Amino acid sequence: MSEQPLHDARGQVVVGVDDSTESAEAAAWAADEASRRRTGLMLVSAYSVPHRGLLAYDVMSEDYAGVLRTQQQDLHRRIASGLLERHPELPITSAVETGHPVDVLLGRSAGAALLVVSTRERGRFRRLIGGSVAIGLAGHSPVPLAVIRPGAAQPRSGPIVVGVDGSAASQPAVALAYQEASLRGAELVALHAWHDDLTVEVDEQGLIGADIDEASLRQIEQALVSEELAGYAQTYPDVVVRPVVRKGDPITELLELSADAAMVIVGSRGRGGFKGSVLGSTGQALIAHADAPVVVVRPLD
Fold first, then answer.
1. Which residue segment(s) compose the domain that 42 sits in?
2. Among the four 9, 67, 76, 204, which has the fewest Cβ within 10 Å?
């Protein structure tokens, strides 16, 4: 295992690690994903040195930053050793930097195929690692972000579930979902959940129809799904697709499907999201509550 220079993660899977059990599970999931993609894995950790003005600073080692760095490097060696037992041919590199975890992970994952982080759970309450690291990354990462909740890292044989809503934000998510389904030999479930306030009908005069019956609305929504999935069959002829169109809340429907899914993939913002928001409510809810690993994909700039 070697340390990599900045921005040398092109095409690899990057995983943020610390000394928690949840982090170890996420690293194992990331290693499986890197092996499946036949690419390398980069372990990334961030650490911070207390400000000189703090009272405790004077009693610290003169080379406290060096001590912290060495601890993280030792942690990386232990993690890599365990991963190589399962994937002996997997190229593993290491990066340890001082700074905020979000900033370090964003910098190190530039050009990566996938960025992976864990979340933590304490008692009855769920909280994101570092307070809001996963949310911060989901809203700003230019590469797909996989968030692994406790217990979700175990190999799952279910379908790949992707949220489809006809927005530009869901198009990269659909593309990644086809890729993942093909890599895993899994079924692809394309879910589109709609409700009345997200559906409009525009006639030839540009007027919104006020009296559209539910059957007509369902046809409109089914056509939206078909249009968004069009073109992928030729690229991925091996992928079996099951469109699911339901009237209901997208969050509820995706959470229900996550129980048996190998992965749930969504865009960072969907139809009906607030302009300027970096992460929609669907992505936030899935990161906090989904049973399966959740991958959030930002729209193309």
1. 2-148
2. 204
